[in-house]
Write a structure and sequence with these properties.
By secondary structure, the protein is α/β, with parallel strands linked by helices. Helix content is 38%, strand content 26%. The structure holds adenosine-5'-diphosphate (ADP) and magnesium ion.
Length: 245
């Protein structure tokens, strides 16, 4: 694991109208760190990670991603999104584009990569998530697990420094969860900096350097996985773990 800080959140607060969704969040992530974020539905997990690529804006505090301060200055947004890949629960692939075209769209249009080069890169990452042979199909012709692996490859095609995952397996049929988790484990082993919102505790134990528990907009507790699962300190953490384990 590297030692340089790639994400820093300091005193971050966010409201949706008068609903206080993130409360004084302080978080520092080092290059190569793998973080799992868990907590009850509605605790602010998605909002927290969406603030890191500015799909959501915070109102108070500071967020710095790979040296870029996230402010109201709109010029930062493309630079940040080039550094931060995101994978969603519902894949969000473009249904009218082939798998390969899903992968080349952003490199061609955002990074101005030449088409042939973008296609070579797309094939490289599709093969890495073991789906190269599906490159010319459309998303609707693939299983959920395959579509999610395409979504991971598509994010990797922007060669991000950080990957954010928001419950990437929770919309999948049980038999497809493992193939997506295996892909995420591979990425973790390659040293990718990852923030994963997931309740897959096997994944957390296998790859996370740190597990963060959120409740009601706060980071309530964080620890390395064994201590987190075997010896939770906070009552709210204990209650949550009792429900999911
Ligand atoms: P989690 O991912 O932990 O389930 P979210 O970050 O999605 O939590 O949501 C936290 C809370 O904020 C929830 O109560 C949710 O209803 C509310 N919320 C999320 N997005 C919005 C929005 N765009 N406008 C208003 N409230 C929202
Ligand atoms: Mg969520």
């Amino acid at each position: 694991m590297g030692t340089s800080e790639v994400i820093s959140m300091s005193g971050v607060n966010k409201w949706y109208g008068d609903f206080h969704v993130l409360k004084d969040i302080n978080l520092s992530v080092k290059s190569g760190e793998r973080i799992v974020v868990c907590g009850p539905s509605g605790s602010g997990k998605s909002t927290l990670i969406r603030c890191l690529n500015r799909l959501e804006e915070h109102q108070e505090g500071e967020i710095n991603v790979d040296g870029i301060e996230l402010t109201d200055n709109i010029k930062n947004i493309d630079a940040v999104r080039a550094e931060v890949g995101m994978v969603f629960q519902h894949f969000n692939l473009f249904p009218h584009l082939s798998v390969l075209d899903n992968c080349t769209l952003a490199p061609i249009w955002v990074k101005k990569t030449a088409k042939a080069e973008a296609e070579a890169l797309g094939m490289k990452y599709l093969e890495r998530v073991r789906i190269g042979e599906q490159a010319h199909k459309y998303p609707g012709q693939l299983s959920g697990g395959q579509q999610q692996r395409v979504a991971i490859a598509r994010a990797l095609c922007m060669t991000p420094k950080i990957m954010l995952f928001d419950e990437p397996t929770s919309a999948l049929d049980p038999e497809m969860v493992k193939e997506v988790l295996d892909t995420m484990v591979d990425l973790a082993k390659e040293g990718m900096t990852m923030l994963c919102v997931t309740h897959e505790m096997g994944f957390a134990k296998a790859v996370a350097d740190r597990v963060i528990f959120m409740d009601q907009g706060e980071i309530v507790e964080q620890n390395e996985p064994n201590a987190f699962f075997d010896n939770p300190q906070n009552e709210r953490t204990k209650e949550f773990l009792n429900q999911i384990l």
